[in-house]
Structures are given as C-alpha cells and as structure tokens.
Design brief:
3 helices; 101 residues; flat; single chain
C-alpha cells in the first residue's frame, strides 16, 4: 500500500485521491449549535404539543442504520483477501439493542 511506504508523501497522496480519484463537493454548513437547536425543538414540542420533526421510531431506525455502517467499516476486508487489514481497526464492544417499552 502506497501510504505505508517509509518515504510516502501523505499530503500529495491525499491531494491525488481527494481531487483526481474522488470527486469532492463542499457543502454549506449553517452556523450554530446543533445540540442547542435540537434541545430547543424538544422543549417547543413538549410545551406546544406539536409532534417532533423526528419521532422515536425514526430516531431508533437512524441509530440502527448508523450502527450497521460502523459494523460494516469495522469488518470490511479492504484488500479483498482474508487476513488483511480490516476497517478502521477499531474493536467495538457488543452492546444490547434497547427498545422502547
């Protein structure tokens, strides 16, 4: 793998990958604190009785999908051969899936 060579120029490799091989699009990100906005929205829903933008079932489905992505990255055979590098090399502890009563 080119990036693991002792004399590898990582910055040049990144520029090559994220410019020539992978098309990069920068997306605008609104200024502000997303967590504060989420909490304000929650308080507004509680005080006004309006339904949330994302309900509990949708949130659980999103968390499940995100967990599947992380599991896939952690177990992917990047070189296409058994016993080669896998994912991000992170070891994720097993965790129980919690469901609302």
């Amino acid at each position: 793998m080119q990036s693991q060579q002792p004399d590898a120029d990582l910055e040049a490799l990144k520029a090559s990958v994220f410019g020539e091989l992978v098309e990069v699009h920068e997306l605008p990100v609104p200024a502000g604190d997303a967590l504060t906005a989420e909490l304000r929205s929650f308080v507004d829903c509680v005080t006004s009785g309006r339904p949330p933008v994302v309900d509990g079932r949708q949130a659980l489905a999103a968390m499940f999908a995100a967990d599947q992505v992380l599991d896939s990255v952690a177990t992917h055979q990047w070189e296409g051969r058994h016993g080669t590098s896998r994912g991000s090399q992170m070891v994720r502890p097993a965790k129980p899936l919690r469901r609302a009563a």
